[in-house]
Amino acid sequence: MQETMNKLPQLQAGALAGVRVVEMGQLIAGPFAGKTLGEFGAEVIKIEAPGAGDPLRNWRMIKEGTSVWWQVQSRNKKSVALDLRQSQGQELARQLLKEADVLIENFRPGTLEGWGMSPEELHALNPGLVILRISGYGQTGPYRDLPGFGVVGEAMGGLRHLTGEPGRVPVRVGVSIGDTLAALHGTIGVLTALYHRKVNGGKGQVIDVALHEAVFNVMESLIPEYSAFGAVREAAGSALPGIAPSNAYPCADGWVLVAGNGDSIFKRLMQTIGRDDLGNAPDLANNAGRVARVQEIDAAVGAWTQPRSINDVLAQLGTARVPAGRVYTAKDICEDPHYRARDMILAQETRDGYSVEVPGIVPKLSATPGTIRSSAPRLGDDTDAVLADMGLSSAQIAQLRTQGVIQ
Protein backbone atom coordinates (compact mmCIF):
# COMPACT_ATOMS: atom_id res chain seq x y z
CA MET A 1 0.00 0.00 0.00
CA GLN A 2 2.78 2.43 0.88
CA GLU A 3 4.26 2.09 -2.62
CA THR A 4 1.05 3.33 -4.25
CA MET A 5 0.42 6.27 -1.96
CA ASN A 6 0.46 9.73 -3.50
CA LYS A 7 0.54 8.48 -7.08
CA LEU A 8 -1.99 9.39 -9.72
CA PRO A 9 -4.46 6.65 -10.73
CA GLN A 10 -3.58 4.74 -13.90
CA LEU A 11 -4.88 6.56 -16.95
CA GLN A 12 -7.67 4.89 -18.88
CA ALA A 13 -10.71 5.85 -20.92
CA GLY A 14 -13.21 7.63 -18.69
CA ALA A 15 -16.94 7.07 -18.56
CA LEU A 16 -17.45 10.39 -20.39
CA ALA A 17 -14.76 9.86 -23.04
CA GLY A 18 -15.97 11.35 -26.32
CA VAL A 19 -18.11 14.03 -24.65
CA ARG A 20 -16.98 17.55 -25.58
CA VAL A 21 -17.72 20.30 -23.06
CA VAL A 22 -17.29 24.02 -23.69
CA GLU A 23 -16.94 25.88 -20.41
CA MET A 24 -17.71 29.58 -20.26
CA GLY A 25 -17.94 31.67 -17.12
CA GLN A 26 -15.45 31.85 -14.31
CA LEU A 27 -14.58 31.36 -10.65
CA ILE A 28 -16.40 28.49 -8.96
CA ALA A 29 -19.87 27.22 -9.83
CA GLY A 30 -19.59 26.68 -13.59
CA PRO A 31 -15.91 25.67 -13.57
CA PHE A 32 -16.45 23.15 -10.75
CA ALA A 33 -19.05 21.42 -12.91
CA GLY A 34 -16.55 21.40 -15.78
CA LYS A 35 -13.88 20.01 -13.46
CA THR A 36 -16.14 17.16 -12.40
CA LEU A 37 -17.05 16.19 -15.97
CA GLY A 38 -13.41 16.42 -17.01
CA GLU A 39 -12.27 14.08 -14.26
CA PHE A 40 -14.48 11.37 -15.71
CA GLY A 41 -13.16 11.65 -19.24
CA ALA A 42 -14.96 14.56 -20.93
CA GLU A 43 -12.90 16.90 -23.10
CA VAL A 44 -13.34 20.30 -21.46
CA ILE A 45 -12.46 23.40 -23.50
CA LYS A 46 -12.47 26.44 -21.25
CA ILE A 47 -13.00 29.81 -22.92
CA GLU A 48 -11.29 32.65 -21.03
CA ALA A 49 -11.03 36.36 -21.70
CA PRO A 50 -7.65 37.46 -23.11
CA GLY A 51 -5.54 39.36 -20.62
CA ALA A 52 -6.22 38.12 -17.11
CA GLY A 53 -8.37 35.06 -17.85
CA ASP A 54 -10.45 33.50 -15.10
CA PRO A 55 -10.01 35.53 -11.86
CA LEU A 56 -9.57 32.26 -9.96
CA ARG A 57 -6.06 32.15 -11.39
CA ASN A 58 -5.21 34.85 -8.84
CA TRP A 59 -7.40 33.91 -5.87
CA ARG A 60 -6.01 33.05 -2.45
CA MET A 61 -2.45 31.71 -2.20
CA ILE A 62 -0.19 32.16 -5.26
CA LYS A 63 2.78 30.01 -6.30
CA GLU A 64 4.88 30.74 -9.38
CA GLY A 65 2.37 33.44 -10.33
CA THR A 66 -0.73 31.24 -10.24
CA SER A 67 -3.21 30.24 -7.53
CA VAL A 68 -2.73 26.69 -6.27
CA TRP A 69 -6.54 26.50 -6.19
CA TRP A 70 -6.43 26.88 -9.97
CA GLN A 71 -4.34 23.71 -10.20
CA VAL A 72 -7.29 21.74 -8.83
CA GLN A 73 -10.21 23.59 -10.40
CA SER A 74 -8.82 23.53 -13.93
CA ARG A 75 -7.06 20.19 -14.27
CA ASN A 76 -8.10 18.15 -17.30
CA LYS A 77 -9.10 21.32 -19.15
CA LYS A 78 -7.88 23.11 -22.26
CA SER A 79 -7.64 26.91 -22.21
CA VAL A 80 -8.73 28.97 -25.20
CA ALA A 81 -8.23 32.72 -24.76
CA LEU A 82 -11.09 34.18 -26.79
CA ASP A 83 -12.70 37.63 -26.56
CA LEU A 84 -16.45 36.97 -26.53
CA ARG A 85 -17.16 40.70 -26.60
CA GLN A 86 -16.05 40.83 -30.23
CA SER A 87 -18.26 39.54 -33.02
CA GLN A 88 -15.43 37.42 -34.41
CA GLY A 89 -14.94 35.84 -30.99
CA GLN A 90 -18.64 35.09 -30.76
CA GLU A 91 -18.61 33.48 -34.21
CA LEU A 92 -15.66 31.27 -33.22
CA ALA A 93 -17.51 30.24 -30.07
CA ARG A 94 -20.56 29.33 -32.16
CA GLN A 95 -18.40 27.20 -34.44
CA LEU A 96 -16.97 25.44 -31.41
CA LEU A 97 -20.43 24.88 -29.91
CA LYS A 98 -21.70 23.46 -33.20
CA GLU A 99 -19.58 20.36 -32.52
CA ALA A 100 -19.96 20.29 -28.72
CA ASP A 101 -22.12 18.12 -26.51
CA VAL A 102 -22.34 20.43 -23.49
CA LEU A 103 -22.10 24.15 -22.80
CA ILE A 104 -21.51 25.32 -19.22
CA GLU A 105 -22.03 29.00 -18.41
CA ASN A 106 -22.49 30.93 -15.18
CA PHE A 107 -22.98 34.47 -16.44
CA ARG A 108 -25.78 36.77 -15.35
CA PRO A 109 -29.00 35.86 -17.22
CA GLY A 110 -29.17 37.55 -20.61
CA THR A 111 -25.42 37.57 -21.27
CA LEU A 112 -25.49 34.71 -23.77
CA GLU A 113 -28.51 36.24 -25.46
CA GLY A 114 -26.62 39.51 -25.87
CA TRP A 115 -23.88 37.63 -27.73
CA GLY A 116 -26.31 36.01 -30.13
CA MET A 117 -26.01 32.67 -28.36
CA SER A 118 -29.41 32.18 -26.78
CA PRO A 119 -30.48 28.57 -26.23
CA GLU A 120 -32.86 28.89 -29.18
CA GLU A 121 -30.08 30.11 -31.48
CA LEU A 122 -27.64 27.47 -30.24
CA HIS A 123 -30.17 24.65 -30.60
CA ALA A 124 -30.87 25.79 -34.16
CA LEU A 125 -27.14 25.38 -34.75
CA ASN A 126 -26.73 22.18 -32.70
CA PRO A 127 -30.00 20.49 -31.69
CA GLY A 128 -28.24 18.03 -29.40
CA LEU A 129 -26.44 20.63 -27.29
CA VAL A 130 -26.97 20.32 -23.53
CA ILE A 131 -26.79 23.81 -21.98
CA LEU A 132 -26.07 24.19 -18.27
CA ARG A 133 -26.87 27.68 -16.98
CA ILE A 134 -25.90 28.48 -13.39
CA SER A 135 -26.89 31.85 -11.94
CA GLY A 136 -27.76 33.47 -8.66
CA TYR A 137 -31.54 33.29 -8.96
CA GLY A 138 -32.20 31.30 -12.12
CA GLN A 139 -33.22 32.30 -15.63
CA THR A 140 -36.78 33.28 -14.64
CA GLY A 141 -38.57 34.97 -11.75
CA PRO A 142 -38.54 38.51 -10.32
CA TYR A 143 -34.94 38.25 -9.03
CA ARG A 144 -33.36 36.86 -12.21
CA ASP A 145 -31.48 40.06 -13.07
CA LEU A 146 -30.07 40.69 -9.60
CA PRO A 147 -26.38 39.94 -9.06
CA GLY A 148 -25.98 36.80 -6.99
CA PHE A 149 -22.94 35.11 -5.47
CA GLY A 150 -22.73 31.86 -3.53
CA VAL A 151 -22.78 33.63 -0.17
CA VAL A 152 -26.12 35.24 -1.05
CA GLY A 153 -27.46 31.90 -2.25
CA GLU A 154 -26.46 30.32 1.06
CA ALA A 155 -28.40 33.01 2.93
CA MET A 156 -31.49 32.86 0.73
CA GLY A 157 -31.43 29.07 0.66
CA GLY A 158 -31.80 28.94 4.44
CA LEU A 159 -28.32 27.68 5.33
CA ARG A 160 -26.78 30.82 6.85
CA HIS A 161 -29.61 31.12 9.39
CA LEU A 162 -28.57 27.75 10.83
CA THR A 163 -24.81 28.25 10.99
CA GLY A 164 -23.12 29.52 14.11
CA GLU A 165 -24.02 29.60 17.81
CA PRO A 166 -27.56 30.45 18.96
CA GLY A 167 -28.09 34.20 19.19
CA ARG A 168 -24.82 35.06 17.49
CA VAL A 169 -23.99 36.27 13.98
CA PRO A 170 -24.51 33.67 11.21
CA VAL A 171 -21.15 32.47 9.90
CA ARG A 172 -19.78 31.04 6.68
CA VAL A 173 -19.42 27.29 6.40
CA GLY A 174 -15.76 28.01 5.62
CA VAL A 175 -15.81 27.18 1.90
CA SER A 176 -17.90 28.33 -1.06
CA ILE A 177 -20.50 25.66 -0.42
CA GLY A 178 -23.30 27.45 -2.32
CA ASP A 179 -21.28 27.51 -5.53
CA THR A 180 -20.19 23.91 -5.17
CA LEU A 181 -23.71 22.66 -4.45
CA ALA A 182 -24.92 24.48 -7.56
CA ALA A 183 -22.11 22.89 -9.59
CA LEU A 184 -22.97 19.40 -8.36
CA HIS A 185 -26.66 19.88 -9.11
CA GLY A 186 -25.64 21.17 -12.54
CA THR A 187 -23.47 18.11 -13.13
CA ILE A 188 -26.39 15.84 -12.24
CA GLY A 189 -28.48 17.80 -14.72
CA VAL A 190 -25.90 17.43 -17.48
CA LEU A 191 -25.59 13.68 -17.01
CA THR A 192 -29.38 13.31 -16.90
CA ALA A 193 -29.78 15.39 -20.07
CA LEU A 194 -27.08 13.42 -21.89
CA TYR A 195 -28.88 10.19 -21.04
CA HIS A 196 -32.20 11.67 -22.16
CA ARG A 197 -30.58 12.77 -25.42
CA LYS A 198 -29.30 9.25 -26.01
CA VAL A 199 -32.66 7.54 -25.56
CA ASN A 200 -35.00 10.24 -26.88
CA GLY A 201 -33.94 11.17 -30.35
CA GLY A 202 -30.79 13.18 -29.76
CA LYS A 203 -32.39 16.41 -28.56
CA GLY A 204 -30.53 18.63 -26.12
CA GLN A 205 -32.11 20.80 -23.44
CA VAL A 206 -31.41 23.64 -21.01
CA ILE A 207 -30.55 23.03 -17.36
CA ASP A 208 -31.42 26.01 -15.15
CA VAL A 209 -29.64 25.95 -11.77
CA ALA A 210 -30.05 28.78 -9.25
CA LEU A 211 -27.50 29.06 -6.45
CA HIS A 212 -30.11 29.50 -3.72
CA GLU A 213 -32.20 26.59 -4.99
CA ALA A 214 -29.21 24.24 -4.90
CA VAL A 215 -28.67 25.18 -1.24
CA PHE A 216 -32.38 24.96 -0.48
CA ASN A 217 -32.50 21.44 -1.94
CA VAL A 218 -30.27 20.09 0.87
CA MET A 219 -32.11 21.74 3.76
CA GLU A 220 -33.65 18.48 4.90
CA SER A 221 -36.84 18.89 6.99
CA LEU A 222 -36.71 22.69 7.18
CA ILE A 223 -39.90 23.41 5.22
CA PRO A 224 -42.04 20.39 6.22
CA GLU A 225 -41.46 21.25 9.90
CA TYR A 226 -42.56 24.82 9.29
CA SER A 227 -45.55 23.71 7.25
CA ALA A 228 -46.73 21.07 9.72
CA PHE A 229 -45.85 22.73 13.02
CA GLY A 230 -45.01 26.37 12.33
CA ALA A 231 -41.53 25.55 13.63
CA VAL A 232 -38.67 27.79 12.46
CA ARG A 233 -35.42 25.89 12.86
CA GLU A 234 -32.71 27.96 14.52
CA ALA A 235 -28.94 27.80 14.80
CA ALA A 236 -27.71 25.14 17.19
CA GLY A 237 -23.92 25.41 17.08
CA SER A 238 -22.32 21.99 16.78
CA ALA A 239 -25.38 20.08 17.99
CA LEU A 240 -27.82 18.27 15.71
CA PRO A 241 -31.27 19.57 16.71
CA GLY A 242 -33.80 16.86 17.42
CA ILE A 243 -31.15 14.13 17.45
CA ALA A 244 -29.36 13.19 20.67
CA PRO A 245 -26.63 12.86 21.59
CA SER A 246 -24.71 14.28 18.65
CA ASN A 247 -22.34 17.15 19.37
CA ALA A 248 -18.78 18.39 19.70
CA TYR A 249 -17.24 17.83 23.12
CA PRO A 250 -14.11 19.34 24.68
CA CYS A 251 -10.99 17.28 25.25
CA ALA A 252 -7.75 18.18 27.00
CA ASP A 253 -6.15 18.95 23.62
CA GLY A 254 -9.05 20.00 21.38
CA TRP A 255 -12.50 18.86 20.34
CA VAL A 256 -14.04 15.57 19.38
CA LEU A 257 -17.32 14.85 17.61
CA VAL A 258 -19.45 12.06 19.07
CA ALA A 259 -22.60 10.69 17.45
CA GLY A 260 -24.24 8.44 20.03
CA ASN A 261 -27.77 8.90 18.77
CA GLY A 262 -28.62 5.30 17.84
CA ASP A 263 -30.51 3.43 20.58
CA SER A 264 -27.94 0.65 21.00
CA ILE A 265 -25.05 3.06 20.37
CA PHE A 266 -26.30 5.29 23.18
CA LYS A 267 -26.21 2.40 25.65
CA ARG A 268 -22.63 1.54 24.64
CA LEU A 269 -21.60 5.19 24.91
CA MET A 270 -23.06 5.52 28.41
CA GLN A 271 -21.39 2.29 29.48
CA THR A 272 -18.03 3.56 28.20
CA ILE A 273 -18.26 6.84 30.11
CA GLY A 274 -19.45 5.12 33.29
CA ARG A 275 -23.04 6.36 33.18
CA ASP A 276 -25.08 3.18 33.06
CA ASP A 277 -27.72 5.07 35.03
CA LEU A 278 -28.41 7.05 31.87
CA GLY A 279 -27.85 4.16 29.52
CA ASN A 280 -30.44 2.01 31.33
CA ALA A 281 -32.98 4.76 31.98
CA PRO A 282 -36.31 3.70 30.36
CA ASP A 283 -37.11 7.21 29.15
CA LEU A 284 -33.76 7.43 27.33
CA ALA A 285 -34.22 4.22 25.35
CA ASN A 286 -35.36 6.18 22.28
CA ASN A 287 -34.41 9.43 20.60
CA ALA A 288 -37.49 11.39 21.71
CA GLY A 289 -36.65 10.79 25.35
CA ARG A 290 -33.00 11.66 24.86
CA VAL A 291 -33.87 14.92 23.11
CA ALA A 292 -35.91 15.93 26.17
CA ARG A 293 -32.84 15.45 28.38
CA VAL A 294 -30.17 16.42 25.86
CA GLN A 295 -28.50 19.04 28.07
CA GLU A 296 -28.01 16.49 30.83
CA ILE A 297 -26.63 13.91 28.40
CA ASP A 298 -24.29 16.42 26.73
CA ALA A 299 -23.00 17.47 30.15
CA ALA A 300 -22.27 13.84 31.04
CA VAL A 301 -20.39 13.17 27.82
CA GLY A 302 -18.46 16.44 28.11
CA ALA A 303 -17.46 15.72 31.69
CA TRP A 304 -15.97 12.43 30.53
CA THR A 305 -14.13 13.80 27.46
CA GLN A 306 -12.75 16.98 29.02
CA PRO A 307 -9.83 15.54 31.05
CA ARG A 308 -8.87 13.07 28.31
CA SER A 309 -6.85 13.47 25.14
CA ILE A 310 -8.53 13.20 21.75
CA ASN A 311 -6.59 10.01 21.01
CA ASP A 312 -7.71 8.43 24.27
CA VAL A 313 -11.35 9.34 23.66
CA LEU A 314 -11.28 8.03 20.09
CA ALA A 315 -9.56 4.80 21.14
CA GLN A 316 -12.14 4.04 23.83
CA LEU A 317 -15.13 4.97 21.70
CA GLY A 318 -13.74 3.01 18.76
CA THR A 319 -13.51 -0.09 20.93
CA ALA A 320 -17.10 0.47 22.00
CA ARG A 321 -18.20 0.95 18.36
CA VAL A 322 -19.45 4.48 18.98
CA PRO A 323 -19.06 6.82 15.94
CA ALA A 324 -16.60 9.59 16.83
CA GLY A 325 -13.92 11.65 15.16
CA ARG A 326 -11.51 14.52 15.51
CA VAL A 327 -12.00 17.88 13.83
CA TYR A 328 -9.46 17.65 10.99
CA THR A 329 -7.23 20.48 9.81
CA ALA A 330 -5.49 20.44 6.41
CA LYS A 331 -2.42 19.05 8.21
CA ASP A 332 -4.48 16.24 9.75
CA ILE A 333 -5.91 15.32 6.35
CA CYS A 334 -2.52 15.22 4.65
CA GLU A 335 -1.05 13.04 7.41
CA ASP A 336 -3.97 10.64 7.62
CA PRO A 337 -3.21 7.14 6.23
CA HIS A 338 -6.83 6.48 5.31
CA TYR A 339 -6.94 9.46 2.94
CA ARG A 340 -3.80 8.23 1.22
CA ALA A 341 -4.86 4.60 1.12
CA ARG A 342 -7.93 5.66 -0.85
CA ASP A 343 -6.00 7.95 -3.23
CA MET A 344 -7.65 11.07 -1.84
CA ILE A 345 -4.34 12.97 -1.69
CA LEU A 346 -2.52 12.94 -5.02
CA ALA A 347 0.69 14.51 -6.28
CA GLN A 348 0.00 16.63 -9.36
CA GLU A 349 2.69 18.11 -11.60
CA THR A 350 1.93 21.67 -12.66
CA ARG A 351 2.86 23.35 -15.93
CA ASP A 352 4.99 25.74 -13.90
CA GLY A 353 7.35 22.86 -13.08
CA TYR A 354 6.56 22.04 -9.47
CA SER A 355 4.55 19.30 -7.81
CA VAL A 356 1.66 20.02 -5.47
CA GLU A 357 -0.59 17.72 -3.48
CA VAL A 358 -4.25 18.00 -4.46
CA PRO A 359 -7.54 16.30 -3.56
CA GLY A 360 -8.31 13.02 -5.26
CA ILE A 361 -11.47 12.29 -7.23
CA VAL A 362 -14.97 11.57 -5.94
CA PRO A 363 -17.00 9.43 -6.53
CA LYS A 364 -14.98 6.26 -7.08
CA LEU A 365 -16.12 4.16 -10.03
CA SER A 366 -14.91 0.56 -10.21
CA ALA A 367 -14.68 0.21 -13.99
CA THR A 368 -14.11 3.81 -15.14
CA PRO A 369 -12.58 5.74 -12.23
CA GLY A 370 -11.89 9.43 -12.55
CA THR A 371 -8.38 10.46 -13.53
CA ILE A 372 -6.09 13.48 -13.75
CA ARG A 373 -5.02 13.34 -17.39
CA SER A 374 -3.50 16.81 -17.62
CA SER A 375 -2.53 19.63 -15.29
CA ALA A 376 -4.24 23.02 -15.25
CA PRO A 377 -3.43 25.09 -18.35
CA ARG A 378 -1.79 28.47 -18.62
CA LEU A 379 -3.99 31.13 -20.18
CA GLY A 380 -4.48 30.35 -23.85
CA ASP A 381 -2.27 27.25 -23.83
CA ASP A 382 -4.58 25.43 -26.21
CA THR A 383 -5.94 28.29 -28.34
CA ASP A 384 -3.98 27.47 -31.48
CA ALA A 385 -4.54 23.71 -31.27
CA VAL A 386 -8.30 24.03 -30.77
CA LEU A 387 -8.69 26.58 -33.58
CA ALA A 388 -6.58 24.45 -35.91
CA ASP A 389 -8.79 21.48 -35.06
CA MET A 390 -11.74 23.64 -36.13
CA GLY A 391 -10.10 24.07 -39.55
CA LEU A 392 -8.48 27.50 -39.22
CA SER A 393 -5.13 27.98 -40.94
CA SER A 394 -2.00 29.32 -39.28
CA ALA A 395 -2.46 32.58 -41.16
CA GLN A 396 -6.03 32.96 -39.96
CA ILE A 397 -5.01 32.25 -36.37
CA ALA A 398 -2.19 34.80 -36.60
CA GLN A 399 -4.61 37.40 -37.96
CA LEU A 400 -7.04 36.79 -35.09
CA ARG A 401 -4.20 37.23 -32.64
CA THR A 402 -3.17 40.49 -34.26
CA GLN A 403 -6.75 41.75 -33.96
CA GLY A 404 -6.88 40.85 -30.28
CA VAL A 405 -9.65 38.30 -30.73
CA ILE A 406 -7.49 35.50 -29.29
CA GLN A 407 -4.43 35.21 -27.09
Summarize this entry quickly:
Keywords: Transferase. The protein is 38% helix and 14% strand.
Key features?
formyl-coa transferase, domain 3, Rossmann fold, 407 residues, six-stranded parallel sheet, 18 helices, 2 domains, disordered N terminus, alpha/beta, 13 strands, 38% helix
What is the CATH-assigned architecture of the largest domain?
3-Layer(aba) Sandwich
Low-confidence runs: 1-10
Strand order of the largest sheet: 5-2-1-6-7-8
Number of strands: 13
Mean pLDDT: 95
- The CATH class of the largest domain turns out to be Alpha Beta
SS-based class: alpha/beta
Spatial shape:
elongated
- CATH topology of the largest domain, by name, is Rossmann fold
Based on CA atoms alone, the radius of gyration comes out at 25 Å
> Main sheet?
6 strands, parallel
How many helices does DSSP assign? 18
The CATH H-level homologous superfamily of the largest domain: Crotonobetainyl-coa:carnitine coa-transferase, domain 1
What percentage of residues falls in helices of 4 or more residues? Answer: 25-40%
| Count of structural domains | 2
Distance between the termini: 45 Å
Keywords: Transferase
GO molecular function: transferase activity
Organism: Comamonas avium
Protein name: CoA transferase
